[in-house]
Amino acid sequence: MNFLRCKQGNGGVWRAGLYIGLLVASLVSLFVWRTNRGTSLLYRDVANALLKQYPLVVNGSQNLGILALKSRHTQKFELTFLRTSDRKVILSDVSPNTQLSITWRPNNDMVVYQEADGGDRIYSLCTLDLSSGIKRTLRLPTSVSAAPPLRWNRQGSRLAYCQMNAFSGSRLHIVDFQFSEPRLLFTVDDVDSDSDYSWSASGSELICMSESRLGHAIRVDTKLRHTITFPLVTTGQIKHLALHPSGKILLFTWRAPGWEYFRLMRTDLNGKSVEQITQVEGDVSFPIWEPTGNSFIFHVSRKGETTVWWESADGSASAALGAADGVNLCQGFVDHEPSVRILQKSNTRTPCLIKASYPTNKIELLYAKPSFDGESICSPEFTEIEAPDGMRIPALLWRAGSTGRHVPRPLLIDIHGGPGVQISSEWDAARARVLNDGFNVLSINYRGSTGYGATFERLWEEAPQVLDIVAACDFAISELHTPSNGIVLMGSSYGSKLALGAYALRPEAIGALVLVSLSEVPFVSSRPIRFPPFGVVGFHGENDHVISSAVARSHLKAWLDLSHYASGGFQWRTFPTEGHHFHKTDSWTQVYVEVLNCLRAVMSRTRQDDGMLN
């Protein structure tokens, strides 16, 4: 009986424990449901903010009769072609693959572009016929990059494209489109993939730059299938080329030893004399001759913005074209009238396509997406942050809202990859979403970034770059009044490495790390003494060619030494159809959901601290 009583008594305790367990499980389930529901709602909100910007105008046909628009859906991409006169859609193409380097054939009947499957960096050349709607993937050599341009000759009969290879030099392929199935006509080896190439007016010759022979150009005769290599300069770097319609004069951008910026030069190909023809501050790029040869345009980039300049061939007249701010990209001259097509990437709203007359700069709007909620943001402030060694580091600061400048706000510091690239001032949908949530954004062009002179660009040493990010954190605290642990560092590729290095040196300032396509961990003398209070989130593409997702995750966990921290603050996600550079809206939505989660957690903690102080 005593035994039975004991069993009965224990049964009551057991039942009570069961009830308590069920109650705890229900509360946990409710918390998880609410958390997942909150994350799901935020995902839809961020995805909607990124999708609302589409379709974005890409370019227009040479006669401006048709406009090309592009949309990035959550998992797919779409090209849409719009008739300018009545805004009627004449063709659209939806693809699971990227559609990059969209280039119009001169007779306006076809576009050519490059596609890669799942971010695998195997870019195939594709054509889309606008009259038949037929898309073809051409049986031609593939490239590991879509960065080099696609260049039609003026007749639209031949196309030049650069094939970049992972472990060997680049090659320039000439494709003949005079057959029902375009075929490879001629291949030029030893081509500098960082330089441009330019066709002659006859369409049978072009000029490109040699990779192995510094300052030497290659003249290609596609009829005779013959090349001649000749010197333009003996030192320095040449990037962009524009051959005069006569075939006798060449414009090129050159940065000689001791020059901080690329300058526009002209040479007579007969006498080989070289002269500078512009006096501007900033990097000059992409010259284009007017078809008559009476004038040309070029671009000047400075402090994250790009301006289009027009100049007469004899130098007697010149004018800036397009908008005064943002990034202006000229896409060529308009047929049979004194004007150019410009893609204007504003600081404050989505890009638009305009026509600008020269020399008056009378502007006609060709296409702009109607305004939508959350689109408009303030222009960034250009600032310079002093690094520990005294160097001034350029940065762009976007402030959220219209409240006082000294209101403490969590801050997103965006660190680009490269390092040989830069963050510009142009409008960005994801940045706008962060700003509209009430958070500031600071983008750092740390030493090694382009656009700020050759001396700055060649500073590739890692340790000072890390200190540039540390200086940005100190600037945020002292000048922007960012709260303690109120900084979220987001690094992409090489920028992820710098974010980790900065965290090791300033853990008290940084609340969370968001790492996109981590390439390697930094070499620092000390490791972080604690885990970021609001976590570490890593994102990686399954088809990343730099380092696999598994290896990157393993290196990061070892570097953080997660055995000393609670594992709950660490997340790692692998996107199955992305490479090193993410293209899909779904991927960037997930990234910015975590960015906002981290910033909101910082804000919540800051308000709690303020409440305790009050």
How would you describe what is shown here?
There is one protein chain. The protein has 614 residues and is of the alpha+beta class. The protein has 7 helices and 36 strands. Strands 29-30-32-31-33-34-35-36 form an 8-stranded mixed beta sheet, sandwiched between helices. Strands 1-2-3-4 form a 4-stranded antiparallel beta sheet, with no helix packed on it. Strand 7 and strand 8 form a beta hairpin. Helix 1 packs across helix 7 and helix 4 packs across helix 5. The longest helix is centred in the N-terminal third of the chain and has 50 residues.
SS strand fraction: 25-35%
Distance between the termini: 63 Å
Average per-residue pLDDT, rounded, comes to 88
Sheet/helix structural class: alpha+beta
Within the largest sheet, what's the order of strands?
29-30-32-31-33-34-35-36
Radius of gyration: 28 Å
Tally the helices. Answer: 7
Largest sheet: 8 strands, mixed
Total DSSP E strands: 36
- What best-fitting shape do the alpha-carbon axes yield? globular
Low-confidence stretches: 1-11, 18-37
Helix content: 10-25%
